[in-house]
Here is the input.
Amino acid sequence: MLWRSAHRTIKTLPRLSAPTLYRHSYTFTRKMSDEAFPNSEQLFRSAFDQPNSPSELLKLIKEHPTYPAVVDLLVYYTCVAEENPTRAEALASILLQVRDAPDAPIINTDLTLMEVFSRKLADLHGRGLEVDDDTKTLGPSNTFLTGSLLSGLSFKYQLTSCSDQYGAILDALDVNPSSPTTEVLVTGACIQLLTAGSEIIQHSTSYFKSADEVATKLKAQKTAGAVKDANALKLLELANWHAETGFKKENDINNVWERLFPSQA
Here is the structure.
C-alpha cells in the first residue's frame, strides 16, 4: 500500500457527537446500538482484566465469530491501552496470543483473525496517528503519543504494519524544527523506534534507506532544538544511539512510556 503523502498537514478532527459510550483518539465512537453483541464493551473490558485474559477473549470471539465482534475487541484494546499506557505492552502480547491460538475461529467473512487484526489495526493506527491540535502539547494524555506507542507495539508483535505507521516516523524525521507540532512528532517517532526499531528497519526500505539515515536525521532534530522536554530529549538521544548502532533487537526497549513519563510508572 502506497503512503498517500510524504508530508501530512495539520488537521483538526471533527467533534464527536454524544451520546457515546466513550471517546478516544481514534475518532471511533460506539453507541449502545453499535455493539457487536449485548454488553460487548463490558465483557471485553472485563476479559482484558482477567489473569487468563487470552482464553477469556478467545471464548468471546468463539461465541460471536463475526467481523463486528473482532472490531469491538480491537477498539476496546486501544481504549484500555490509552487509559493506562503502561499496560499497552502486556495488552499487545495478549492480542498476539488470541490471534495465534491454535483454535482461533474463522470469522463469518471467511477471514482469519490474523487478517482481521491486520486490516483493522492498520485502520485504527491511521486514525491514531492523525496530526491535530492535540499534537502541539507533549504530555501523558497526548493521544498522538499513545497512538505512537500502540503503533510501535504492532510493529514489535507483528500485528500489523501500514504506510501511516511508517509515514508518522518519516514526517518526524523531516519536520521543520520550528513547527508547533515538532516536539510531539519527533517524540512519537522515538517511541516507535525504541519500541520496535529492529523490526521497523527490516521492512522500511521504501521509507528509509538505512539506520544511518535515520540516525543522521534524528541527530539533526536534536541539534536544531526540536525537542525541549528533558525526558523526551533523553528518548531522542537514546533513539539516535539505537539507530547509530544499527537498530539491534537487543536494544529495543519495553518501558519507553515510563521513561518518557516517570510519574506514570
In short: The radius of gyration is 18 Å.
